[in-house]
User: What shape does this take?
Amino acid sequence: MHRELVERAMAGDREAFSELIRLSVNRLYAAARLILRDQWLAEDATQDALVAAWRGLSGLRDPDRFEAWLYRVLVRTCHREARIARGRRHEVLDELQLAGLRSEPPVDLGDRDLLERAFRRLDTDQRALLVLHYFVGYSIAEVADVLGVPPGTAKSRLSRASQAMRSALDADARLVDTNPEPVR
Assistant: This one.
């Protein structure tokens, strides 16, 4: 990120912190939205993470690790929001709002629905791993750093999360195969 801005923000410069947040808030919100699967929870988590980041910024040891540290704060906040919201109905992800943040073309409606249902079957930890690696684009080492676990642990958890996603997609595919089309 921008080391000079981070150092100024660590010294209490609100303008520098505001600029850092302006540069990353959209990506943070998109990651929170993917992890939590709910617009309102994602907004709350993003806002809470930014407040926590401002309050805890003086504890950041390495200014070059600001972005990873900020994602760590966000993931922890998402976990807290998910615990609070358990049992509530989740809103379907609006793919069009994230389309501007992604480089790949949007998937068709049927595929998007299958992916959404499968993603909802995962727990918050699994979604966080998949989002950090595949959406944010972090390497295994960076994911491990964000989550505060050894790289081998992050790699095995990512593998289990990917397998859980595949299993959820397979289960949905079997449901579609066993339900014949209605006769018109």
